[in-house]
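Reopening: Tryptophan synthase beta chain still failing for me.
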Amino acid sequence: MKHRGYYGGFGGAFLPEILIPTFDELVSVFESAKTDPGFRNQYETLMAQYSGRPTPLTFAANLTRHFDGAKIYIKREDLNHTGAHKANNVMGQGLLVKKMGKTRVIAETGAGQHGVACATMAAKFGFDCTIYMGEKDVMRQRPNVFWMEQLGATVVPVTDGTKILKDAINQAFRDWVTNMDTTHYVLGTACGPHPFPEMVAWFQSIIGIEAKQQILDLEGRLPDRVYACVGGGSNALGLFAGFLDDPVELVGVEAGGKGIDTGFHAARLSSTDAGAGIAQGYKTYFLQDDDGQMKETHSISAGLDYVGVSPILAHMHETKTARFESATDAEVVDALKLTMRSEGIIPALESAHAFAGAFREAPTLSRDQIIIINQSGRGDKDIFTVADVLNDPEWKTFIQTKAAQYHA
Ligand SMILES: Cc1ncc(COP(=O)(O)O)c(C=O)c1O
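Support: Ran it again with your exact input. Result attached.
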């Protein structure tokens, strides 16, 4: 272990000996990129030309009227190429992979958005690409698996453990240990050993830097609160980055699943169910039992059921520089329905947690207050889950007809 990348008592890099030279190389490439204005310029140009940045900040006039409280703005990360904020991190790491001269990338994915973004980046830069995905998530996010494969990636379903994101991360680390010379592990969120939390947050800071300028241009003032959903923490840290030194309340919304009391959730910071521990190469709050065994998590969204959380957010929680709430699956579906019907916007189920958290509080604020909700991704990928929950009869008929065609 080396004493680096700490945020208060969280973070660090708890690595097997064999990975230390690989991490040293990554730290050094990232440190030089971070201090090179030419690199940030190259990154921002790539994001403008390939991913359509800056993403808009949309005034949600109908939702604002509906709640009759704070003015509601939505930061539209769903409009990135591949439909989520994940592209910001992936394209940045892709540039670093080129600098390191490696030829293969691997990644874990939960909702599949990071996997699709990674497969896209690999196709563009000419890297071989393998994506590890828990078998349960493969089932939940089949459309994204299909596109990853069409983009040229190999998708490996992970059948270990609980068959979700944490198991996919373990498998990706196993691969990396045996292929370090050629391969870079494109971790998809602000977790894991140093420098990943800092590096991913640095690439995602593009969200908050843009949002701050956009709200100043539109309203001539800062927002009162900003909301983001929290899986590993990358879109939240990205949005928060624009407002860290400002009198703006930062609110993270975790997966409340079936309700905190039921135990079926993934609320690491907003419940008292998690404890500090060390796993997957870093120290943070994990949902674990008294023996330190990772617990099963639950969320309607495949991207928010990670058992740990960014050490940067764990520190912000302890220092009270950000506030953490949770939203239940049921609240999330209501928020999704309302946003679709009133604004014509389809948030990803992950993002809909941020909407649900904001909707709870918007009516308690006054009309001259402003909030920003980060729409981390678009909801198209969730069609199977949402159609199930809404029990849509025509969708069922469509699936049955398709199934009959395949049997024919
Ligand atoms: C659309 C979307 N939003 C949010 C997340 C959660 O990740 P993070 O907390 O790193 O932003 C995911 C993860 O897969 C996602 O796909």
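Residues 84, 110-111, 113-114, 189, 229-235, 303-304, 348, 350-351, 376-377 surround pyridoxal-5'-phosphate (CB under 6 Å). If you still see a failure, please send the error message rather than a screenshot.
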